[in-house]
Task: structure prediction
Amino acid sequence: MRLGEDIRTLEGTLMLDARTGAPAGADSSRRGGESTRLVRGAVMLERGRIARVEVDERTPIDPRRIICPGFIDAHLHIPQFDAIGHDGLTLLDWLNDVIFPAERRWEDAAFARAMAARVAKRLLSHGTTGICAYGTVHHEGTRAAMESLAAAGLRGSVGQVLMDQSAPDYLLRPAAQLIDEAARMERVGRIEPIVSPRFAVSCSMALMRGAAKLAREKDWPIQTHLAEMLPECELVERLHGMPYVDVYKQAGLLGRRTVLAHGIWLSEVDRRELEGWRCVIAHCPTANRFLSSGDFAGQKFRPLALGSDVAGGPDVSMVRVARAAREVWLASLQSQAAPMFGPDYWWWQITAGNADALGWSDAGRIAVGAAADLVVVEPDVELRSAGSDAAALGQLMYGWDERWIAATVCEGRVAWTRGG
Ligand SMILES: [Zn+2]
Result:
């Protein structure tokens, strides 16, 4: 496969959403379709979409070539890719000492444009084709980055960060200016704007209300952070005089199209309330470990999504994020024999699950009509081709090596290949 080549047919073992192409009456899922399965087959592509899926249930899977849906990362920060790995700091110190200076570099829109192109390549090399991401507070820098991400073939939502308090002056803007700039954002290719108040620490109530109003007027999604660390929750209460969830509720930020990153320090009552609003929680297990934020306990929250949270999370690969999520879940149970949330579930989560959470019904799956965003994987280990899919899916997840990715396809076109 050559870079830029249009792909018409891919054959091998297909990673299917359990609900797609399952034989009638098959009990292929434990949790209402929240599962993946592997099956021999072929997928035909036309004009950037999946035109046909042929499935051969009788032939054993071919473990040497697996066609996966492109992975989706529901929470990451594009300007932070050069800041991965500064450890030993708590969230608020890490922001001030490492992250804010890194974001300052996007004052230079040309730098932002070049950096986003570099990041896009890196994402594609890890099989990520969909993103829900933050830019910086810089309008021109974020616009330039959106252009680079779209040109690379990625799909996603990317937002100019909104912050008007409790951060270095060089990253603060008046609320009215930020809302005005955010309102001028436009879709570029497959990258749409998302309204992005950073979090309640760095936003005044006026800014958050303005952000909520803008999202309603434009019918754009919203993303922010929620309850990542205990000192952050305490600071929010001090700044706004009410509990964290209430701040976002008062601001009008909660709703079906709102992605809340982390959601660690929430009570059961908070979680039920957020489920009532149909908000998405983006669980970021690798970031939570890196920053020692706490133990996430909301695996049963719906809708749930998974995110790398680069640079809080050091792993670009969504497969590694999925594995970490599996490990966090197992640690909470202290048992390896947990029947729920196995590898088949987490593969589903980083593909169809994240797509559904973000409202992208035509992404994250190998199904007729879906966007032809696919990853061609050639594992160099022997997968168990007989018996249960769960075993092979576990082997794939725990043995995962980015060098197995032969090509990443966006809208039917090769956007990245192993040979460059
Ligand atoms: Zn984040």
